[in-house]
Amino acid sequence: MTGIVINVEVRQHTGTGGARQTRREGFVPGILYGGEKGPVAIAASAKDLLKAIRSGKFLAHMVDLHHSGESQPVIPRDVQWDPVTDLPVHFDLYRVDEASVISVEVPVHFLNQDTCPGIKKGGTLNVVSHTVALDVPAGKIPEELVIDLAGRDIGDVIHISAVRMPDGARPSIRDRDFTVATLSGRGGKQEDATEEA
Which residues belong to any copy of the Large ribosomal subunit protein bL25 beta domain (predicted)? Predict the structure, then answer.
């Protein structure tokens, strides 16, 4: 869990007019859906929602939804932004429990770029996938996938099968061993290294 709590109220007025009225009152309209219950129109304080979003752990992480003294885990699925003010104008939340397996995009980060043999020889790290879709229990969503470049050389191709998965997680795409990143050189060096690989 991220420790983020979103306090919401149930909206009585829906539609465009209701959403405008909600925003005038300092709230952001949203929808809570998923699970066995039907969709519910909700609203959260614009200030609190913006603070949660700016924490960097809001989207695609499980957070606590509080309403009338009750709490339930949810996954924020989408935030829509005003193109002029760059403030949130609508958000979607999805009901889950900690054991629910969901698909989320997780960022990929690389370690030891400064000591990577391929990069030290003048090679370039080409990142094919900056994020990877994972099927993971909602209560165990990882912050990132980490790939260690120590010992990697020009011509190396890093496939998803070489990436260490967190407990309970697996790639959403399982019909092929897709490329996450490559180490390429310049001109003939790259071609020679690819042939050797």
Answer: 102-184
